[in-house]
Amino acid sequence: MDRLKKRIKADGVAIGTEILKVDSFLNHQIDVELFEAIGGEFRRRFSDVAGKVDKIVTVEASGIAVACFVASYFGYPPVVFAKKAKPNTMTDDSYSAEVRSFTKGTVSNIMIAKKFLNEGEGVLIIDDFLAHGLAAQGLASLVKQAGGKVLGVGIVIEKSFQGGGEKLREAGLRVESLAVVEKIEDGNIIFA
Amino acid sequence: MDRLKKRIKADGVAIGTEILKVDSFLNHQIDVELFEAIGGEFRRRFSDVAGKVDKIVTVEASGIAVACFVASYFGYPPVVFAKKAKPNTMTDDSYSAEVRSFTKGTVSNIMIAKKFLNEGEGVLIIDDFLAHGLAAQGLASLVKQAGGKVLGVGIVIEKSFQGGGEKLREAGLRVESLAVVEKIEDGNIIFA
After folding, report:
1. Subunit contact A69:B71, Cβ cutoff 8 A
2. Largest CA distance in chain B
3. What range defines the domain where residue B125 resides?
4. Which of A81, A183, B95, B106 sees the fewest Cβ atoms within 10 Å?
């Protein structure tokens, strides 16, 4: 997606060899017009399964807005976002999966109430970043625990050098990434 | 907003006298079509200041999607969401405010990087719930620290019996709530 790559080049900040900061338009400040375009691009990429999308699943926080705009292009299926901690209002039975965050240096559980995932449902997983792939793996695990079918994983920015995309594809998941960063070096962002 | 109130009546779950669960359409599973309508309703309520909205500010996680749809009705100003914990990629100077969550029983800091709030900016604050008003107060504090002007606070569901709305209005803030719950009693949700 050229518009996205141009924006990453213009406003992304490379830190060391691992971190790409895109907080000015993606995960702290949000460019909503860009998010609408991202929704449309996912619709194009997943057009072959468009009739089978019963639900869109993501994880809080940054994935939520992307997932909502994707939903608006797929006939408004419900968006369900996994929660990272269990608030005391979440008393229902939940599916859960352990997810490590390399960025935050923490291990946490993500969970979705059982009533929001159903057997036989077609699910698109959407997230803003794919690095080591642990969040997406966790989301796929939640869907599978419920007996749903993961139609694909839609990622805004994949950092391919951290291996998550490869791992998901080897596990048989279809991954569509709108921008694939192959390398971060000397402050430069190099796309695949 | 009738459509919202009907939905709360139909799918909201009253627990005790304090808690209203709306996780089937608002803060765990999201009805994106309803969120679009909510965006349009905020546009109507704040039409008198529409030309002055430079930015929309909310707090992760549930507020993000609402804020994005509001932005789409106000000519796409940037949406900035306050973060609840400081990830190690957030190295810039931040404005911060302490917020207590009665639901989760925790005290946390919310913060926004200084570069995303500017002096003289007109800001709409958007959030899904207004209970004791501490999140909205915290957001207003961040905007004021930066020298911005809070044009108004847009809330999807206000629980007026918890006093947050009164507190904000007494502090001189304009609060527009799309559904005001006056009382939760014997499993019933009573609107103002």
Report:
1. no
2. 48
3. 2-191
4. B106
Of the ranges A50-64, B36-50, B68-82, B96-110, which one carries the lowest mean pLDDT score?
Answer: B96-110
**Interchain pair B79, A32: CB under 8 A:** yes
B65 contact partners, CB below 8 Å, separation of at least 6:
A64, A65, A68, A79, B30, B32, B35
A vs B, Cβ pairs < 8 A, gives 112
As a whole number of angstroms, the distance between CA B79 and CA B136 comes to 15
Listed range (A39-43, A168-172, A173-177, B98-102) with the worst mean pLDDT: B98-102
Q: pTM for the complete prediction?
A: 0.95
The type of residue at A22 is V
Task: State whether ipTM is beyond 0.85.
Answer: yes
| Cross-strand bridge partners of residue B181 | B159, B191
Q: Does A71 touch chain B (CB under 8 A)?
A: yes
List, for residues A88-124, the tens digit of each pLDDT value.
Answer: 555 569 999 998 877 667 788 999 999 999 999 999 9
Question: H/E element holding B139?
Answer: helix B134-145
Q: Residue B60: which of A23, A35, A61 has the nearest Cβ?
A: A61
How far is the C-alpha of A55 from the C-alpha of B56, rounded, in Å?
28
How confident is the model at residue B108, as a pLDDT?
Answer: 83
How high is the mean pLDDT of chain A?
94
pLDDT(B91) > 90? no
CB of B119 closer than 8 Å to CB of B90: no
User: How many folded domains does chain B comprise?
Assistant: 1
% of chain B residues with pLDDT over 70: 95
For residue A105, what pLDDT is reported?
Answer: 76
Q: Decide if B172 touches A, using CB distance below 8 A.
A: no
CATH number at residue A99: 3.40.50.2020
Residue B82's closest CA among A127, A28, A26? A28
Task: Flag if A19 and B89 touch (Cβ within 8 Å).
Answer: yes
Instruction: Tell me the HSE value of B12 on the side-chain side, using a 13 A CA sphere.
Output: 22
Tell whether the model's pLDDT for residue B88 goes beyond 60.
no
Q: Strand, helix or coil at B78?
A: coil
Which residue type occupies A192? A
Please list every residue in chain B whose beta carbon sits closer than 8 Å to the beta carbon of residue A62.
Answer: 64
Taking CB atoms and an 8 Å cutoff, what residues of chain B touch A37?
A: none
